[in-house]
């Protein structure tokens, strides 16, 4: 499985009056980790588009376990768990210092032909090629 992590120092502009990260910013954090993961196998968003595909998010689920706070160092980890018919990624956001789990998430993206806007029911061959796995 492909995996990538990044560390974020929670900025002041991401928190509310209680110095807790506003819930919507977690989506931004997992998007940053997703892009980091896609770059590990050279299939980031510009590469997708250059190969004639766009990959919209069709499902996104978050489970807030504990709050991230201003100045906290958090590790956001993205793991690719499915790629044959869609790109499914699992995420964890943890406190760097304590390793406490703060948030879990899952996202699902499907391939869409950029030209026709038709959804593909199988990931394009380039995904298998980039991942170095056989395509049946």
Automatic annotation (TrEMBL):
Coiled-coil regions, chain positions: none
Transmembrane segments: none
UniProt xrefs under Pfam families: 4HBT_2 (PF13279)
Record's keyword annotation contains Hydrolase: yes
Keywords: Hydrolase
Domain of life: Bacteria
Entry-linked InterPro entries: 4-hydroxybenzoyl-CoA_TE (IPR050563), HotDog_dom_sf (IPR029069), YbgC/YbaW (IPR006684)
GO MF term list: fatty acyl-CoA hydrolase activity
Family annotation (PANTHER family): 4-HYDROXYBENZOYL-COA THIOESTERASE FAMILY MEMBER, NOVEL THIOESTERASE SUPERFAMILY DOMAIN AND SAPOSIN A-TYPE DOMAIN CONTAINING PROTEIN (0610012H03RIK)
Similarity comment: family membership: Belongs to the 4-hydroxybenzoyl-CoA thioesterase family.
Name of this protein: Acyl-CoA thioesterase
Organism: Idiomarina rhizosphaerae
């Amino acid at each position: 499985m492909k995996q990538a992590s990044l560390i974020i120092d929670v900025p002041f502009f991401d928190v509310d009056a209680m110095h807790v990260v506003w819930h919507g910013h977690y989506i931004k954090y997992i998007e940053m980790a997703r892009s980091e993961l896609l770059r590990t196998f050279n299939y980031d968003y510009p590469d997708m588009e250059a190969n004639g595909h766009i990959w919209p998010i069709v499902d996104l689920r978050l489970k807030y376990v504990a709050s991230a706070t201003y100045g906290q160092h958090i590790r956001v980890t993205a793991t690719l768990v499915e790629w044959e018919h869609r790109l499914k990624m699992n995420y964890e956001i943890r406190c760097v210092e304590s390793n406490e789990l703060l948030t879990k998430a899952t996202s699902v993206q499907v391939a869409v032909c950029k030209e026709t806007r038709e959804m593909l029911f199988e990931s394009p061959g380039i995904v298998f090629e980039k991942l170095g796995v056989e395509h049946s």
